[in-house]
Amino acid sequence: MCTSIIYTAGDYYFGRNLDLEVDLGQKIVITPRNKTLEFREIPNLEHHYAIIGMSIIRDDYPLYFDGINEKGVGMAGLNFNGPAHYFPVQQGKDNIASFELVPYILASASSVNEAKKLLANANIANLNFSDKLQAAPLHWIVADKTGASITVESTIEGLKVYDNPVGVLTNNPEFPRQLVNLSNYRGISPTAPENTIAPEVDLPVYSRGFGSHFLPGGMDSESRFVKATFAKMHTPVGNSEVENITNYFHILQSVEQQKGLDEIAPNTYEYTIYSDGSNLSKGIFYYRTYENSQISSVDMHKENLETSELITYRVQNQQEINYQN
Amino acid sequence: MCTSIIYTAGDYYFGRNLDLEVDLGQKIVITPRNKTLEFREIPNLEHHYAIIGMSIIRDDYPLYFDGINEKGVGMAGLNFNGPAHYFPVQQGKDNIASFELVPYILASASSVNEAKKLLANANIANLNFSDKLQAAPLHWIVADKTGASITVESTIEGLKVYDNPVGVLTNNPEFPRQLVNLSNYRGISPTAPENTIAPEVDLPVYSRGFGSHFLPGGMDSESRFVKATFAKMHTPVGNSEVENITNYFHILQSVEQQKGLDEIAPNTYEYTIYSDGSNLSKGIFYYRTYENSQISSVDMHKENLETSELITYRVQNQQEINYQN
Amino acid sequence: MCTSIIYTAGDYYFGRNLDLEVDLGQKIVITPRNKTLEFREIPNLEHHYAIIGMSIIRDDYPLYFDGINEKGVGMAGLNFNGPAHYFPVQQGKDNIASFELVPYILASASSVNEAKKLLANANIANLNFSDKLQAAPLHWIVADKTGASITVESTIEGLKVYDNPVGVLTNNPEFPRQLVNLSNYRGISPTAPENTIAPEVDLPVYSRGFGSHFLPGGMDSESRFVKATFAKMHTPVGNSEVENITNYFHILQSVEQQKGLDEIAPNTYEYTIYSDGSNLSKGIFYYRTYENSQISSVDMHKENLETSELITYRVQNQQEINYQN
Amino acid sequence: MCTSIIYTAGDYYFGRNLDLEVDLGQKIVITPRNKTLEFREIPNLEHHYAIIGMSIIRDDYPLYFDGINEKGVGMAGLNFNGPAHYFPVQQGKDNIASFELVPYILASASSVNEAKKLLANANIANLNFSDKLQAAPLHWIVADKTGASITVESTIEGLKVYDNPVGVLTNNPEFPRQLVNLSNYRGISPTAPENTIAPEVDLPVYSRGFGSHFLPGGMDSESRFVKATFAKMHTPVGNSEVENITNYFHILQSVEQQKGLDEIAPNTYEYTIYSDGSNLSKGIFYYRTYENSQISSVDMHKENLETSELITYRVQNQQEINYQN
After folding, report:
1. Per-residue pLDDT tens digits for A251-269
2. Interval D153-180: pLDDT, tens
3. Which residues form the Choloylglycine hydrolase/NAAA C-terminal domain (chains A, B, C, D) (predicted)?
4. Is C5 within 8 Å of chain D by CB?
């Protein structure tokens, strides 16, 4: 399904793996400050923060999978099929369609705290973008360049906004249960544990990496949550932007879904279509795809953000092999 | 430590992850047909099959970590610290130093079967390359372009050559035990299992990827053996060389060791320094490094293989980001 | 901590393991129909259903750990330290202290459905039995002789009554999370799984019992929940009361906590102090202790239940060895 | 299949769970000192150490499943189907049929060391007791009252005698592999591990017993080996024979196979038919059965051991419930 992380390394890096069985034709999309963002039930935004991220565009509307804004706030929507529950439009609430939530927050919030305020009176309305484009069951992670992070879930019990102390989100079940499960793995370590099962017996550490023997490696949501947490918590801080970005993509790689390993229907497999990540301070968006392991990047500040039309970049999806002879 | 695989996809692709805490300065090294290969206790080879692979060079001698020859045989040495045992030089045996084994086999064998014959009378002699360069405790995997594969282990019980039915090798314990352990995971699947624990109770498959929930994700040798097997057995066959190579590197990525996750001494971490893989039929060598996610390649057949001097290529270790704006 | 089950075998058998670090001096206590049951905030009950179960007695009050009533309703309180939250006495609610809940329900409900009704307006009040005897953080399982079962949890979010489809309760975390976790183990089976990890490779089923290889065996609450579910769901139905009771205790034995395996403070270990179970139709109470593996029993219907004083039986806690010579 | 342990608690206690799908009609059998023990290929023993244990008798021959002798040596045969390999009778070897091995060793060895000597020139001959009673594929554990323990395995590679540092034996795979696998669980502990997966995040120890969360609970041989080791290594020493015996049976109980959980053929289930254990110093044999949880015992020294006829006791297999009213 999907994994989103925030990685702390001097600057903060935020992004995600998109795990799906079909490529939806996403592009890198910059929404400049004066592109009018229309909403169904709340006032449109004519001037707002600029946004960059992965998105499809329908009717000139950016349906972001994930992105960041120029203030260093990042946000991603991840599959939450089952627990996700959207509600009818409610009087007295800020009624926001699920597909509007990423552009709404990124256009308006300069921090996680501001995002929390915007969500305080929100109702995720069960509106579809169109008959053809039904609302997807999602939950969301919001992070900012101070390292703060929240999870947003709309379930049958209403809208919940959780502080996210690990800076990781995957999919079902509900976020608090992911944290409970993470506790089960508290002893996972980069070093081998002491022999406590039979202290009198010589039990050789016959392999390196013994401290992570019980780390899960499954494609399922709980396994990815635990593994991504372990990876991001122990990944070193690099000495440069390039080294940080390199490390960042290795974290996402640790929970990559390889083709063929997650069959969702006969002969249909989910896999990690793309991995992306942005430097929240610098507004630079980086990504790789399953088909192309080279990292590409788009810098939002190299564009004129005072314009009013969506700016798009094609996803570089061809393997670029460096032939040395 | 390390993981080596052979991936079947029309052609056969063979190579490995090198997991270590230090970069030893390896290069891509081509040993042409007339480069004299000297051995301590067996006759030198003045004319032989050409070889390409990752290697360090000492005193003009190619100390290959792994490589392939022009006949489509590949071979890699992997850490086997503990069980590995080399013996004094024995009369009546083909005494081969551990560091000679890869060049010896690749220079002489045109198939796994021929490698088996060469090993039939072999003794892995406990000789060091030099006082400074002690012999490393290793075991080996040999594969060829028919898909055949063997594992070679010299332990206190002598030299064993095992057929390798999975085409995967990691590290300790001994190979037969890795197969026993693999049996424990026989139920791992791309699809969710039936509810057999409590058939009368509705137990929702709350996440995709449920069939691999118990797949291990640790850095240790057993975990990587199981995960790499699952990945390679279910990875689809591509429609082109590029697609196959892409898939191949994703298999190795599934058992990549990220920096920071495997601490072998205080503040010293093992990680996947490079991943490589060759098309056994075509003699093209591909690789990536931890620092540079782009795939590079060297084609042995673009060199003059009838020469007598080692040909080297520098490892491309700088992250090559494709800046789109 | 504790495990409670209901076992279906013609009749229904209900009871629990009590896992604790100290023996609190419990007895088998019968509360006859005319023993006045006093409550702090709700009206006393002067005439009610008779109850039998494990209990300590303070000030002539039966503080039941678990028990059943003459109508075939069983109930047990289990440690729920952390999530458990009791509330101040609330106007308009049926305010029941946590230590009153078992006697209250068993005295008044002739079925799980009736228990649900009694709980519909309940508030678990944060009242202590006395300064010396503080309220324990608990949650509860109620079951009846139709096989119905519910879980009752009072957390910061209020009082929740869940249908319990598995008929098992252990401890933290909250009950819905236990069910989510149980889904992870849906493939556990009495039979070996097919080889799906590497179908082309011969992976011998080298041991019987392969279908339960991933069954957890820990002392922790999630492990016991999963293992007890597997055991109770697959335990056969016996041909007699004795055979059923035998099978029932084997289920509880599967999640027994052995002495020495669960250290809760230096040199202080939790273990399964007693296991008990009752035939919900017949009113016969059976039990064993850690110290005495022989099963003992007390039949409530062999007492005069029309009396007004508590009837007690001493727990048989001496190992009764049958010396054959 | 089966689990055998030696438990250290002042005295030493040795015995096993017999896990099988059928009750073979075993009895408690005492072989007195002058009962002639006949062997096929080695000299008969007319005078020898007295033996007590679980056995079937065929043609007046005691086919012991397990037992101890008056010198404090214990021995058990456990299923080893697959690796077990018996050889043709060999000249110059002590040829012992597999079914003769337990009586031979117990009749002749006063310590594990003496057993080793007896085995030094042994060949396990592939002889059947009779056409109807074929040799079972077994391996063996021998222990003595000093706490010493060995494992004896006859495989295609020959007869191996391993020191057994854990004092546990289950079934396949070969013993050294069980020890390797045990290393994977070295961090299992009675106490919760430190939070090393994400030290900055508060990950509550939400349940007691966290230190054993990854302890396996399966019916398979590897799971039982690990769990029995953990249990026996941490079980406290009692203050009396009864307390020790009580603790001993709880260790075996931790790896009991409940009926219904291990299906070996349609509707045929293996389960723990009996558990037994002897005080190696005192010659007292204790046992329980699946059907009867009360412990029974037979003391060899209460019989006249200077006789020449087998002495048998019936297994008490009826649940003896202590009705308190």
Report:
1. 999 999 999 999 999 999 9
2. 999 999 999 999 999 999 999 999 999 9
3. 2-313
4. no
- Residue C262 and residue D294: Cβ atoms within 8 Å? no
In angstroms, the first-to-last Cα distance of chain A is 39
> Do the Cβ atoms of B46 and B109 come closer than 8 Å?
no
C142 φ, ψ (degrees, to nearest 5) = -120, 135
Domain ranges of chain B: 2-178+238-313
Nearest-angstrom CA–CA distance, C54 and C25:
10
The residues in B 139-178 lying below 8 A from C, measured between CB atoms, are 165-166
Nearest CB to D186; choose among A184, A200, A203: A203
C2-178+238-313 has which CATH code? 3.60.60.10
CB atoms under 10 Å from CB of A57, counted, come to 16
Looking at residue D1, its pLDDT comes to 77
Q: How far apart (Å, rounded) are the C-alpha atoms in residues B315 and B301?
A: 19
Question: Alpha helix locations (H) across chain B?
Answer: 101-108, 112-120, 175-184, 221-234, 241-253
Nearest CB to A261; choose among B234, B293, B298: B234
Q: What is the mean pLDDT of residues A278-305?
A: 98
Secondary structure of chain D in the HEC alphabet? CEEEEEEEECEEEEEEEEEECCCCCCEEEEECCCCCECCCCCCCECCCCCEEEEEEEECCEEEEEEEEECCCEEEEEEECCCCECCECCCCCCEEEEHHHHHHHHHHHCCCHHHHHHHHHCEEEECCCCCCCCCCCCEEEEEEECCCCEEEEEEECCEEEEEECCCCEECCCCCHHHHHHHHHHCCCCCCCCCCCCCCCCCCCCCCCCCHHHCCCECCCCHHHHHHHHHHHHHHCCCCCCHHHHHHHHHHHHHCCCCCCCCCEEECCEECEEEEEEEEECCCCEEEEEECCCCCCEEEEHHHCCCCCCCCEEECCCCCCCCEECC
Contact C325 D299 (CB under 8 A): yes
pLDDT of B1 higher than 80 = no
User: Which residues of chain D make contact with C299, given a CB cutoff of 8 A?
Assistant: 323, 325
Question: How many C-beta atoms surround the C-beta of residue D114 within 10 A?
Answer: 16
Q: Which of D1, D2, D84, D152 is catalytic?
A: D2
C91 in D contact zone (CB under 8 Å): no
Q: Which residues of A are less than 8 Å from C220 in CB distance? A: 184
From CA C300, how far away is CA C310, in angstroms rounded?
Answer: 12
**What is the complex's ipTM, to 2 decimals?**
0.96
A21 pLDDT more than 80: yes
The string of DSSP letters for B153-217 reads EEETTEEEEEE-SS-EE-SSS-HHHHHHHHHHTTT--SSPPP--SSTTS-----STTGGGTT-B-
pLDDT tens profile D115-145 = 999 999 999 999 999 999 999 999 999 999 9
Task: Answer whether residue A1 shows pLDDT above 90.
Answer: no
pLDDT exceeds 80 at position A111: yes
Q: Is B266 helix (H, G, I), strand (E, B) or coil?
A: coil
CA distance C207 to C211: 10
Q: Is D265 on the interface with C (CB under 8 A)?
A: no
Query: CB burial class (10 A; 0-12, 13-18, 19+) of residue C244?
Result: buried
pLDDT for the residue numbered B294: 97
Q: Which pLDDT score is estimated for C1?
A: 77
